[in-house]
Amino acid sequence: MTSQHEVLSQPPRTAVWLLLLFTPAEQTESMLGDLLEEFSSLVMTSGAGFARRWYWRQTLNTIQHASVGALRAAPLLMLVAVVGGLWSIGFATTLSQHATRTFLDAHGIYQSHPDAYLFWSKFPLRLGRLIICALVGCVVAIAAKRREMQVVTALSVAQLAMFFVAAVAVIARGGEWFHWFVVMFKWNTLCSIATAVGGLIVKVCRSRARKGPSPA
Amino acid sequence: MYSNFTVITGGGDLFYIVEVMFGRDYLGEFEHLVLLALIRLSDEAYGVTVRQEIQTRTGREVSIGAVYATLERLQNKGYVKSFLGEPTAERGGRAKRFFRVTAKGIAAVNRTQQALGRMTEGLELVRSYS
User: Fold this and answer.
1) Does residue B1 fall inside a structural domain?
2) What's the burial of A65, exposed, middle or buried (CB within 10 Å: 0-12/13-18/19+)?
3) What angle do CA B9, B11, B15 make, to 5 degrees?
4) How many H helices and E strands in chain B?
5) Domain for residue B25, yes or no?
6) Residue A215, Cβ neighbours under 10 Å: how many?
7) Which of B55, B61, B63 to mutate to test the interface with A (most CBs of A within 10 A)?
């Protein structure tokens, strides 16, 4: 059984996991080694608490640098990934909605089972959108190569930003917007998370393929 | 390794003129600091020592991410090369990545030092702004 002291004298696991996700794969090994070397010496000289706070500071600064660096190094890639990702999600969602409604209308579901029609024309489509978002997240991460999580995070943030722009337009129009906002906020947040999960899956698979330390 | 290295701080030699004619860029402030740290550390230059060298000498907190991001940029410009050392137990079995400045990197440091020298030449900064 691991004692609390042993746990505290190890770097924070979440911080290590975040570093594995947000740093380029070829730098991860040596960077984690460097941080562990300094962390171990700080545990001896300044205590575990100080060392863990220092590790977290290093992690957050490193993620910030990796993200800003990715944007500076490949702004066009970021732009294409975000615009292309948003367009793909919109296109695939519209297509799936159209296909589902065409199928339901062709089989006369509305006339025979109105409740079933309402169910199938709403919930599965939203669920389908989540799957589309995850798939687009995967594709964007595959295309982004060394900057999977930065690009996918940018796409997720852009999705949420688009929702808030739409929300402002709806609220400005007046009427009953609160219920709409709550429902749509929930689904759009889930879609953003699904996109990030898609990128995460690709990053984890790539890390494992390199036979290096895995973020999972 | 770099014991014979001297930083040229003034004058416009042929090397400098040729570099300027070809439109070579100057180093950014942090790039400059990282290259100087690599030159100082010579064979012992890797993430930890570079970070500590800059932090100790400049007194500013430096993150390992900033050091690696800058080293990657310098490597892409051909100013720095790197190689992996042996994995060690104290680093959780992870290898050190050592960095060396190339001749092109030293030329870039010289060029930047010359530019700074020209800009500060004749200025009495302490008297003017204290």
Assistant:
1) no
2) buried
3) 95
4) 6, 2
5) yes
6) 19
7) B63
∠ Cα A32 A35 A39 (to 5°): 135
Residue B92 contacts A where some CB pair is shorter than 8 Å: yes
Of A90-99, A101-110, B65-74, B88-97, the range with the lowest mean pLDDT is A101-110
Are the beta carbons of B93 and B87 closer than 8 angstroms? yes
Distance CA(A23)–CA(A59), nearest Å, equals: 10
Question: Which residues of chain A have a CB within 8 Å of the CB of B44?
Answer: none
B40-70 pLDDT, tens digit per residue, is 999 999 999 999 999 999 999 899 999 999 9
Determine whether B40 is exposed, middle or buried from the number of CB atoms within 10 Å of its CB (0-12, 13-18, 19+): middle
Question: CATH no. for residue B60?
Answer: 1.10.10.10
Q: What ipTM describes this predicted complex? A: 0.76
Number of domains in chain B: 1
3-class secondary-structure state, position B8: coil
Containing domain of residue B73, as a range? 14-120
Q: What is the interface size between A and B, counted as CB pairs within 8 Å?
A: 73
Residue B61 lies in a domain: yes
Residues whose CB falls within 8 Å of the CB of residue A203, separated by 6 or more in sequence, listed in order: A21, A141, A148, A149, A215
Give Cβ neighbours of residue B69 (< 8 Å, ≥ 6 apart): A65, A66, A69
The verdict on residue B75 lying in a domain is: yes
Tell me which chain A residues have a C-beta less than 8 angstroms from the C-beta of B28. none
Within 10 angstroms of residue A190's Cβ, the number of other Cβ atoms is 15
- The CA angle A114-A99-A91, to the nearest 5 degrees, is 125
Answer for the pair A215, A31: CB distance below 8 angstroms, yes or no. Answer: no
Residue pointed to by tokens 């994995």: B87
Whether B3 shows a pLDDT value over 90: the answer reads: no
Q: What is the mean pLDDT of residues B87-111?
A: 91
Interval A144-190: pLDDT, tens: 877 889 899 999 999 999 999 988 888 888 777 888 888 889 989 99
Q: Which of residues 1-20 of B touch A (CB under 8 A)?
A: none
